Amino acid sequence: MKHLLKFIFSIIAFISLNGCSNDNSNNSNPNSSDCATTDPCRGASGCNYWYPTELSDEWKWIVPTLPGQTTDFRVRIGQDTVINGNTYITSSFVGGTFLTFFNDFCWIYGFRMTNGDLHEYDPDTNSSWLYLPNNPVVNQSWTRQGEEWKVVSLNYSLTTPICSYNNLLKVKVTDSNGDYDYVCFGKGLGIVAQQDQSQNITMYLGEVTIH
Prior knowledge:
This protein is mainly β.
């Protein structure tokens, strides 16, 4: 459950990312012809981002609980906000049963660099850090929120209860205690699944609306 909470935090953080108005970033995002889709199993072929971040994009993730039972939560990209002269996009919990996870573990500001890399921003400390490179390579690693993120595959295949995926970006997330899990990203879809250390699926994408 500890890693599940971290993963939910990661989801919210990721979908919060957009353009920042400082010199090393921009406000560009893929337009609707690039990334638009409502298919949770397949991202748009023209989308170049591992996680699109258009206004009103919405995701629903399914969390298996007991055998034969699931719960879920939805998050939607909201209006831009300006902090210290920089423009950020925000995200918000809009439904489901995991509101506690959103309140306890999310941050809601971020920006995309001109090279497509996604960064988080903390207004309390006026600091930012890498969330996900847009052109990752295998064995690339970085530190995020005291955890090591490391790319372990760029062509991972996975079948969830509703979709079969190929060519996923798979990242190993290791905390300060050495515990780890995996997060899988689909091009044009964002996070499609989380796996525990035994690679059992502990969360998966159920619905998506990308504009």
